[in-house]
Design a protein that fits this description.
The protein has 247 residues and is of the alpha/beta class. The chain has eleven helices and seven strands.
Length: 247
């Protein structure tokens, strides 16, 4: 999840209740210094105003302008966590597409660049087979299954732990700063893709195409990878190489 945030990509967590999906999402903010966050539990009746901010009555009344009050809502966050994301209606989710992918938000007549580094979605299952959700699903580059604790040692550690598990245990001097983020972003774009790695990626792409030619993609038998996801995956690889001191 830290890698995704540093690459500017989004993460989807799925698994049964009680496996700490929400705790993981909240703890991610501790890796960054003074990170602004937004968290919301979505439901059937969630409206865009609850996520993007309410309409400013004063601006509408005094200037005849439709603008939202965005402070404290998703458009001003660096890390956003949307829990039980599939519970929301398709129209509500569709309002998030541009913000989640292009990091842009239209507030009235003005289009704003927003500071989002990553959006974390969570649910008990992968995307439901319902119309209108594919576009949002494609925005989550990493899909991570969160399972219950497996080892006896880890389980005993869990039941012996007292107090909260959600405290900030990252020393202030270890937190990632805005200057470091800017520096790493510039350095990441300078990472090169060796010919053998490019050939491997091309081979994977061709194998997927051959697989899809023998299956029905529309019935979820194939592997759908958009051009956007290929580009995002390469950015993730570049970020990983940089953070492991490779060029």
């Amino acid at each position: 999840m830290v890698l995704a945030a540093l690459a500017g990509e989004n993460v989807f967590l799925y698994g049964p209740p009680g496996v700490a999906k929400s705790m993981l999402a909240r703890r991610l903010a501790f890796a960054f210094r003074d990170a602004r966050t937004f968290e919301y539990l979505l439901g059937r009746f969630t409206t865009p105003e609850e996520i993007l901010g309410p309409v400013s009555i004063s601006r509408l009344k005094d200037a005849d302008r439709f603008e939202r009050v965005v402070d404290g809502f998703l458009p001003t966050a660096e890390i956003a966590f949307l829990d039980e994301i599939w519970n929301a209606s398709s129209p509500t989710l569709n309002t998030l597409l541009t913000a989640i992918n292009e990091r842009r938000f239209r507030n009235g007549s003005e289009e704003l660049r927003i500071p989002l580094r990553t959006v974390i979605g969570a649910a008990g299952q992968l995307v439901p087979n319902e119309p209108g959700l594919d576009n949002l699903w494609d925005r989550f580059l990493l899909r991570i299954r969160v399972a219950p604790i497996q080892s006896a040692e880890a389980f005993l550690s869990l039941i012996h732990t007292v107090g909260t598990l959600e405290g900030d245990s990252v020393p202030p001097e270890d937190k990632i700063t805005a200057d470091e983020l800017d520096e790493w972003t510039d350095a990441r774009d300078a990472v090169t893709i060796p010919d053998d790695v490019a050939a491997l990626i091309l081979d994977i792409r061709e194998r997927i195409a051959r697989h899809n030619s023998m299956t029905n993609v529309e019935e979820n038998d194939g592997v759908a990878v958009s051009d956007r996801r290929w580009r995002q995956a390469i950015r993730l690889l570049r970020t990983s190489a940089l953070l492991n001191d490779r060029t």
